[in-house]
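Note to self: keep these together.
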Amino acid sequence: MSKGRIKIQLHPVGALFPVQEGLEAVGNGVVEIAMMTGGYFTGKLGPIATIESGLPGAERTAMERYAFFYDKGFIEIAREAYGKHNVYYLGPHLSPEWDIIAKKPIRSAADFKGLKIRSFGIEAKWYESMGASPVMLGGGELHTALSTGVVDAVRWGSPAVIQKLGLHEAGKFLIQPSPLPAPNNNFLINRDAWNKLPDDLKVMLDAAAKLASLDYLARGSALDAAAIGQMKAAGVQVAQIPEAEWLEMEKKARALWADYAKQDPTLAARAVKLLEAYLKDLGR
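Structure:
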């Protein structure tokens, strides 16, 4: 799009800084741009970090999430939050659903009781409210942890990502509906570097961020469908939580994120109010 005026050199996760230090790395100019996950920065940003990366019991599709950011204006709240750390929040990198793969079927809230599940943030609190024991693990530890019984279940990525990591070899149950049907990572830019860009390149980057999400979603839906079919052929079963049961579980999740408004009466309160109004518009 820029005809070579913008060049981005790629580095793998962890090569330049620990992922948990990504906010400081971008803000301090260690890198000028990065794709990160907001949920890792809750300790630095507060509850708004979790709201920014996706909430259980909220949007149910990536397109609903897209509208919340760009049509309802949530992106401005995200930019205000990250701006305090010398970071320009370019936009969300919308993702296909992030699912649970488990060693045993989960078909109700009661099935979470005593379950050791890999998760973090508000999800961990949600599972804990149903009797589970959350465990925080990095991606490289998941296969071994699930295989050896360190955890009984893992909430990681989409079906294609679950298959790619081989998690279906240890966990034979894919749980539906997805606990996070509309998650996102994000594109962060050092604010000093952003401010130096001419306006036309800023417009290009904004457009590129949106297109990256839509392209990823389009490719991901096909990859996920194929992965589910291949995992079923390898012996994986889909464990379905009935709709009425799931709606009750969503209420528990909403109660947790509604409390964010009390914890942070500024950014989180505005975001929760905006989200609740949006869900009401959607009939939920």
